[in-house]
Amino acid sequence: MSTAKQWSLWQAPLRVIALVLCIDTLAATYGIWALAREHITGTDLLRLGLLALLSVAYLEVSRQVEHRRRLFQVDGSSHMDMVAVWAFPGALVLPRGLAALLVVFLYAHLWTRSWKSVDGIRLHRITYTGAVAILICAAVATVAAGTDVTGEFGSSAAVVIATLLLAAVTYRVVNAALISSVIFLSRGASRPSNLFGSVSDNVVEFATLGLGAMSALALVRVPWFAVMILPAVFLLQYHALLRDLVQAATMDAKTELLNAAAWRQLAQRELGRAARQQTPTAVLVIDMDRFKHINDTHGHLAGDTVLRSVADVLADELRGYDAVGRFGGEEFVALLPGADGEAALAVAERLRRRVEATEVIVEGRNAPERQRVHVTASVGVAATLSAGTTDLDYVLRAADDALYAAKHGGRNTVRVAPARVAA
Predict the structure, then answer these.
(1) What span, in angstroms and rounded, lies between the C-alpha atoms of 285 and 331?
(2) Residue 211, Cβ neighbours under 10 Å: how many?
(3) Rounded CA gap, 320 and 5, in Å?
(4) Which pTM value belongs to this model?
């Protein structure tokens, strides 16, 4: 294992180092202060022990599943673990110092038994995530302070539910804010799903918080019943693994867009629907100009950064139901349901201008400082007529011919295939 002096954290931008050290120091100070000032009873220790025991039992049984989830995780995407199932009830029913101690135990066990053996996971990231979790528990405890969230002393069900919901939202918001901050400072602007997680990620996270709330109620009312939470957590994790497997099979790892096979399948299905309903559909083929020069000048890692930036532009500019994917190399494709030639041309021009205005910060190959790279793209457009066509290759060839004309027309331009070739 690498020592602290060898952590890759020290190669990060200064602003990232400052934030990580600040959060780590704040969490450690808070945990020590909380442990020193609060009165701890035997019941508190029993609840702490039960939560720790349940977390160990869960991880030891599901360790291979968690390991596989990490292996299939798309680089740069959000990863949701199940720590909230145990940390959230700890924040609700334990003294603050013991809740912080529970978080330290949870992440130490995860690192030792599961994450340590996965390439790409760094210890300083785990310590930061653990520090964030400690501060989240502090926020949850503050929200729940003065309210009998477990109903142990006769609080009404409405008050208990409202407080638990507010505590769950607090947990998620604080977590998203602190994690997205370090991602933003290290990578710059990115698509919202990279900063705050996808809709599916957030559904899983709130499901874990729901199970955590049930654990808190069980610990107070019928402690042994907390064991019944384990099967639900296992099912939730297997669901998350299945989701990750589907994502790995359909998404391009570098850009997080659809891969070529998944895009073709979706596009072919959409063309069939459009033909039946006699509605137009357009295909865009987008190719980055002189991308080889970027790789040769700045290196392939810089080229990957540029690819991701352009992919973010496409995902941001296109509608949610437009299918956009990476077709290979520096070429992207997009399917625009309901768009005729005129509408597709307007979209293509907007994409071209947005790509042209994008400034990408990359690590220089031969220079220590970061460098700014400007890119442009050429776009070929082909639209079906209202009668439609179900031959995807036919439309793709028309769009590719239009792209070829755009390249030979000076690059950084848009060309539209004649309507007759896409009829």
Answers:
(1) 7
(2) 21
(3) 44
(4) 0.64
Strands 414-416 and 377-383: parallel
The CA dihedral of 19, 25, 31, 35, to the nearest 10 degrees, is -160
Q: Cα-atom radius of gyration of the chain, to the nearest Å?
A: 26
Q: Report yes or no: 264 and 316 within 8 Å, Cβ to Cβ.
A: no
Neighbours of 289 (CB within 10 A): 19
d(CA 320, CA 112): 40
Would you state the structure tokens that stand for residue 69, as one six-digit string? Answer: 């989830």
Question: Which string of DSSP letters, residue by residue, matches 20-66?
Answer: HHHHHHHHHHHHHHHHHHS---HHHHHHHHHHHHHHHHHHHHHHHHH
Of 41, 43, 58, residue with least CA distance to 226: 58
Cβ burial 145-181 (10 Å sphere, 16+ → b, else e): eebebbbeeeeeeeebeebbeebbebbbebbbebbbb
Widest CA span in the chain: 81
What element of type H or E holds 101? helix 96-113
Question: Between residues 198 and 139, which one has the greater pLDDT?
Answer: 139
The rounded percent of the chain whose pLDDT value lies above 70 is 80
Q: What is the DSSP letter of 273?
A: H
Residue 2 buriedness (CB in 10 A; 0-12 / 13-18 / 19+):
exposed
What are the backbone angles phi and psi of residue 278, rounded to the nearest 5°?
A: 55, 50
Helix (H, G, I), strand (E, B), or coil: what is residue 380? strand
Under the banding of pLDDT at 50, 70 and 90, the label for residue 194 is: low
